Amino acid sequence: MAREALVIVDFQNDFTPGGALAVPRGDEIADRLNELAGESRFDLVIATRDWHPSDHSSFREQGGPWPRHCVQGTPGAKLHPRLDRSRIDAVIDKGQDPATEGYSAFENPELEQLLRERGIERVTVVGLATDYCVKNTALDALRRGFEVEVDTSATRGVDVQPGDSERALEELRRSGAKIVAGGARVP
Ligand code: VGL
Ligand code: ZN
Question: How many domains in the chain?
Fold first, then answer.
């Protein structure tokens, strides 16, 4: 069996209801994330954090598209309190570079290093947001030669334009990712 990692993308306060850049119903995935993180098929469970300097180029004040969010060290940048930290083996921060959007967690080279070190061949990508950081992290994983699965029971999208998340999943499917809707229990 291929060695497998779970990558939980940006499940942080600012991306959940009440946060600065709330993903609609973003908090709904908490239980499913914890359930996945406890599955024995994962040899490694990683949580990523969007971790911006306060003058990041993606903020409106700097001419970017987003309200200020996930500023390093602020409460909004903390992992969501309902994420069971005891199941997380490593936290990888990204988005520090003021010059890039930082949508892909692979912008931090530590992610690939850790996956290679542990002999991971397959990654399941979940978290927030489907149409930005989940999408770009999963596409980068494919480009780097990993088998990629995205479990839509544990992702939610921003959908600035209606259908963005559906289109992101379609692009991922075309690029070679396996899209599953896990968590459904057959009675
Ligand atoms: C994200 C917008 C801006 C994400 C991060 O985590 O999907 N989206 N920064
Ligand atoms: Zn961001």
Answer: 1
